[in-house]
């Protein structure tokens, strides 16, 4: 079972944990806006339609590769402030190693495979976040 | 060929529009050729699209390399490397 | 900040997620009783005092090794039925890889380092769960 | 030496008690020697403690190998390999 949600509403972790299920082993990752370097606001732009399609494909790949009972990807878009949750991913499986590996896969690959762009507000200026080489390296380690 | 072009993030900001409908000549056969063709539309296009290695693309919502063919495409998106998660 | 809880009360995931914090990156693992092979009840026995001490030491090791902002280990004891949550671990850090690695470390090492014993009820019989070699292998991979 | 001995899981079930206070002779210097000494207390003890490789121990709440010394210990626990998580 796959749950994909892209929304400008706050992520409700209690509800997402409930929906993510109780299938023996559940691994989750939650990302939160940090106030690094004086960032006061984060704007998440995305490509409607293509985003959901990319996330669905990613969740399906994880489900097939690790025999997941459930895969969840929730991503917030729009304006956020430090402390707001940006992303929640969850992998439910019968066994712990599958859940842990699939969860790491989902968050690593989400950073390279899904059309989201971050824009940070610092003081009166805004700047688009640059892609980091470490993100490519993290995603690449999941290649067969 | 009538195609809708979408721009995202700083590409969108620099060009100044989020999308535009264009009529492509048949000689424009790849995403890379499309970028060259779009660059001629205005100074803003030229500037935003100047640095090829900073651009990525999707054809009909699927990520593709810049060398990908665009025959039959209805929607082509051009954007910077993604930074979600 | 470390949170250790050993209790016979059900694990409240919403509350635990809230307490686990919002520090950039949060990785969690939740284990649930499965109804494998007709198991109708699981009894978790532990060594009061020594358990909390072992979990505290484990959380401190993870916190030092990955510079965690928060480490959480919640383990249920007593009688449970399939679907009940046995364990919840969480690792909060500034960066995702630290959170993911520390979470995997906590659950792998918890299975070898903390004095818990599982007894399964199947039909009219009960049997003590045997230690699996794979648990030792998972814990051993975290040796320096 | 007065020591409290704790048993857990099937060790506890087979011996039939969860804890007992014993007075150890000075010749019993390690956990392994303690297990031998306890085995002589009853048939149930002997049976539960027969298979040394299935036993683990803690001295004053800290896990130790069976070769560990027990001098000064107040509480020694004997139990099967752990199976939590």
UniProtKB/TrEMBL annotation, chains A, C:
GO-annotated molecular function: molybdopterin synthase activity
Superkingdom of this protein's organism: Bacteria
Compositionally skewed regions (Basic and acidic residues) per UniProt: 125-135
GO BP term (any one): Mo-molybdopterin cofactor biosynthetic process
Catalytic activity: 2 [molybdopterin-synthase sulfur-carrier protein]-C-terminal-Gly-aminoethanethioate + cyclic pyranopterin phosphate + H2O = molybdopterin + 2 [molybdopterin-synthase sulfur-carrier protein]-C-terminal Gly-Gly + 2 H(+)
Database matches in CDD domains: MoaE (cd00756)
Pathway: Cofactor biosynthesis; molybdopterin biosynthesis
Pfam families: MoaE
UniProt keyword list: Molybdenum cofactor biosynthesis, Transferase
Gene3D superfamilies with a match to the protein in the record: Molybdopterin biosynthesis MoaE subunit
Subunit structure: Heterotetramer of 2 MoaD subunits and 2 MoaE subunits. Also stable as homodimer. The enzyme changes between these two forms during catalysis.
Record's function text: Converts molybdopterin precursor Z into molybdopterin. This requires the incorporation of two sulfur atoms into precursor Z to generate a dithiolene group. The sulfur is provided by MoaD.
Name assigned to this protein: Molybdopterin synthase catalytic subunit
Organism of origin: Sphingomonas dokdonensis
TrEMBL record, chains B, D:
Any Gene Ontology biological process: Mo-molybdopterin cofactor biosynthetic process
Keyword Nucleotide-binding attached: yes
Molecular functions per Gene Ontology: nucleotide binding
Keywords: Nucleotide-binding
Keyword Protein transport: no
SUPFAM superfamilies membership: MoaD/ThiS
GO CC, any one term: molybdopterin adenylyltransferase complex
Pfam families: ThiS (PF02597)
Similarity remark: Belongs to the MoaD family.
Protein name (record): Molybdopterin synthase sulfur carrier subunit
Source organism per UniProt: Sphingomonas dokdonensis
């Amino acid at each position: 079972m796959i749950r994909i949600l892209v929304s400008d509403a706050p992520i409700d972790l209690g509800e997402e944990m409930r929906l993510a299920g109780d299938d023996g082993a559940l691994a989750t990752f939650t990302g939160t806006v940090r106030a690094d370097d004086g960032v006061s606001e984060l704007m998440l732009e995305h490509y409607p339609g293509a985003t959901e399609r990319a996330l669905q494909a990613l969740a399906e790949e994880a489900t097939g590769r690790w025999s997941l009972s459930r895969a969840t990807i929730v991503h917030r878009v729009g304006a956020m402030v430090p402390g707001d949750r940006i992303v929640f991913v969850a992998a439910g499986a019968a066994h712990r190693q599958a859940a842990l590996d699939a969860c790491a896969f989902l968050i690593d690959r989400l950073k390279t495979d899904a059309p989201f762009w971050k824009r940070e507000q610092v003081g009166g200026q805004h700047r688009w976040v640059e892609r980091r080489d470490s993100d490519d390296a993290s995603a690449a380690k999941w290649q067969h | 060929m009538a195609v809708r072009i979408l721009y995202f993030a700083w590409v969108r900001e620099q060009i100044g529009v989020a999308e535009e409908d264009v009529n492509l000549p048949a000689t424009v056969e790849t995403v890379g050729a499309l970028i060259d063709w779009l660059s001629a539309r205005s100074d803003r296009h030229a500037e935003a699209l100047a640095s090829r290695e900073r651009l990525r693309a999707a054809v009909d919502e699927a990520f593709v390399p810049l060398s990908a063919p665009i025959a039959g495409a209805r929607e082509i998106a051009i954007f910077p490397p993604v930074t979600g998660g």
